[in-house]
Known about the structure:
The complex is a heterodimer. Chain A is α+β, with helices and mostly antiparallel strands. Chain A contains 10 helices and 35 strands. Chain A has a 22-stranded antiparallel β-barrel. In chain A, strands 1, 2, 3, 4, 5, 6 and 7 form a 7-stranded antiparallel sheet that branches. Chain B is of the alpha+beta class. Chain B folds into 2 domains: 1-31; 35-198, no CATH class. In chain B, strands 3-4-5-8-7-6-9-10 form an 8-stranded antiparallel barrel. The model of chain B is unreliable at 19-32 (pLDDT under 50). Chains A and B meet through helix 1, strand 3, strand 7, helix 7 and strand 13 of A and helix 1, strand 1, strand 3, strand 6 and strand 7 of B.
Amino acid sequence: xxxxxxxxxxxxxxxxxxxxxxxxxxxxxxxxxxxxxxxxxxxxxxxxxxxxxxxxxxxxxxxxxxxxxxxxxxxxxxxxxxxxxxxxxxxxxxxxxxxxxxxxxxxxxxxxxxxxxxxxxxxxxxxxxxxxxxxxxxxxxxxxxxxxxxxxxxxxxxxxxxxxxxxxxxxxxxxxxxxxxxxxxxxxxxxxxxxxxxxxxxxxxxxxxxxxxxxxxxxxxxxxxxxxxxxxxxxxxxxxxxxxxxxxxxxxxxxxxxxxxxxxxxxxxxxxxxxxxxxxxxxxxxxxxxxxxxxxxxxxxxxxxxxxxxxxxxxxxxxxxxxxxxxxxxxxxxxxxxxxxxxxxxxxxxxxxxxxxxxxxxxxxxxxxxxxxxxxxxxxxxxxxxxxxxxxxxxxxxxxxxxxxxxxxxxxxxxxxxxxxxxxxxxxxxxxxxxxxxxxxxxxxxxxxxxxxxxxxxxxxxxxxxxxxxxxxxxxxxxxxxxxxxxxxxxxxxxxxxxxxxxxxxxxxxxxxxxxxxxxxxxxxxxxxxxxxxxxxxxxxxxxxxxxxxxxxxxxxxxxxxxxxxxxxxxxxxxxxxxxxxxxxxxxxxxxxxxxxxxxxxxxxxxxxxxxxxxxxxxxxxxxxxxxxxxxxxxxxxxxxxxxxxxxxxxxxxxxxxxxxxxxxxxxxxxxxxxxxxxxxxxxxxxxxxxxxxxxxxxxxxxxxxxxxxxxxxxxxxxxxxxxxxxxxxxxxxxxxxxxxxxxxxxxxxxxxxxxxxxxxxxxxxxxxxxxxxxxxxxxxxxxxxxxxxxxxxxxxxxxxxxxxxxxxxxxxx
Amino acid sequence: xxxxxxxxxxxxxxxxxxxxxxxxxxxxxxxxxxxxxxxxxxxxxxxxxxxxxxxxxxxxxxxxxxxxxxxxxxxxxxxxxxxxxxxxxxxxxxxxxxxxxxxxxxxxxxxxxxxxxxxxxxxxxxxxxxxxxxxxxxxxxxxxxxxxxxxxxxxxxxxxxxxxxxxxxxxxxxxxxxxxxxxxxxxxxxxxxxxxxxxxx
Lengths: 814, 201
């Protein structure tokens, strides 16, 4: 077919265009520097250097001017499609238009003795200032010819925060901020430090956001190189340490620190419990003082004592101390030891998460061999890099109802079992993950009465990401909701992070609209999309093309765009899907919120779409045929395409709402919604359907901590008006926590329904309760039960009904 | 529709798309920060947050082809007189609003966030801003009927979420439902990372 071949040509065109667009972006190759750009002219230019990993600016030298500029950086492990190890690489490059900034070259040395350093070599002395935003993917150097040098602008980090390193006024000396605390530091806080003869340990006070912080400091260093070297050596014991310049305006209080202290707490003789408590207290103090080596020593000693109730705590803190010390492999081993020895304790979930965070941070790869490893070889202990998690739940549900005095009928009696399995292996270059999410319904009712047994497969995919190239592929049953893909499908999704802001995607597959029905073998789709952002603050944009065939014919062909913006007081989200096959708007969705003063927010949305989505396959709706081919034998293609439009009426929804915080504990929300669905004509033997309109007005009052701390109560009122009925609903819903393990949620709903056809009224009362019990973070039991009584006021007929349901089940993961 | 008409409309659409793509690729850029600070005027706590929350979704095709449940997720740092606590804010809403005003909260008394497959069970701290000591949410609710929910988290948990390449969220209870991350949220992810860096260091 013409449109089909045209679609294939468009696909080729788009693929080619995307590859061409991607080529120059990819050519930079993996390294710490992603790209560099010079703009301006010889009298004043900006050099922008983009990194592949976020880095913290530590300082630069010389100050003001020179024929070279050395910028000290602290790269993080947060990278865009490359391994964090690129931070240790070396590279030299010369940007296009480098002459405009008198720039000879840019040199990055991640292996420098003084820490990673970016050097800009100029062809002649220039004046410069460095603009940075604390931790960033980029850095800008403003360069001016010396003769026309303007006053340097104030350097201001984008992030104002209590502990973000920020450049200060120029002085010749540097200090290391070891720790910040809200009490006056003592000599014990700096125990184990050995300042040089010309150095001092002191503290000064600073007011930050109304809070007084005492800054424990080591100084002074005459050059930033020396300070950076010292900082690197100290970060094992003072992980939050950062570099600063001496501020002559502060009042410094010097501390006198003794040499390495021995274990000072006298060991309590006799009573073993007191002895352990004393050791634990000593270790806690050591941790607080940042003396993690000593803490490791004490916790190890505690664990060598006979088993005790505080051993899990000591084991956890030993792992934590190892982690703080930078001994990642040891820390992992200690966390794993905790999980094997104390899997059922309250701390197990916490430890598991710390371990996972440690594995995720990839620090192991970055750490040099640990000379204190148990075998003395300096090699890290070999451990599996696989992580596997299983989530399992089972719920039994029973529904029954009874009309008037008739026999009770059970409409559902089934056990729902669900399992989710995740496996992951993170490597230096390749990151593999897979997921299976499936469920089974075991129906206990007789055949023909119940819904029958059923297997669901929601997800079953394998995913491989290459950190070096930025490529990623996912194959199997998966889900997407952008790029024109309408939910679940079986196929391949291929992504390429071309740069920090550009993501390219290609997808091919078969729809699997229902997790129980399997694949729609008649349909095949392929598509491509590009996402760009964030730009202009927090705006993100996406565009796509998608082509779907059904039994060899064009089923759906669309282009579209998505945009999303979240500002401080506004948010806007829009989606447009234009069907090029039918030259019709497939879907347009716009949602916006605007917050005003006085804690008032207005909300609005507009949603217009063909429902179901425009596709040739819709022509089968209402027809006695099984396949599209059968339909083609009876009707010509043009007529079938008209049928598909006839079966896809336009649905339009408007929503307008307002929410207002009356007080910290009281909030009111109100909204109105109107949905209209257009009429459909009679065609192809399928009868016409009339237009429908549905309108509702809703308001709710949400109050927290009304009866006890942590509770919430919701009072809701709603009026809905459709072509067949009018319903007024009142809802009362309260949730009460009891301790850390129990939650109780009583609820009541009352509806008054007026059926327009016979002007009858029906009252429905639905009380219910939910109870949850949490035995541990990994195991939870829940019960939900409810009953509905309905009384219908109809001429001469008793239509009272009762129905009852309950759910009981558990969920666990391991 | 004839093939010529289809071809012509497709060409027009491609022209529009190409023009828009060129606009996109023409170097619009920004170095703005993704996080903000706000001092609550009534309770005087200082709240740091990421401006763009992450969006999760779940198709509800059983109710309508286009029906979806959404969850917005944003990090919060609350500074009360120098004591820092960390929370996740969730904005829970649906394109098909339930007549039962409490229904959006069902299953969210406890949630599980999966970061690269690693489960993080979280318990609700409260359903209004009072749970974090604030008088109003710093995040904008997407619709009036959306339910706010707050969960206390540790810095480690935030770090896992910020660094995860694969995130999803699961409610609990009999109707345990899985929410997938909406694609391509570079701004929201960058905000999370920046929030983490600003909070921890």
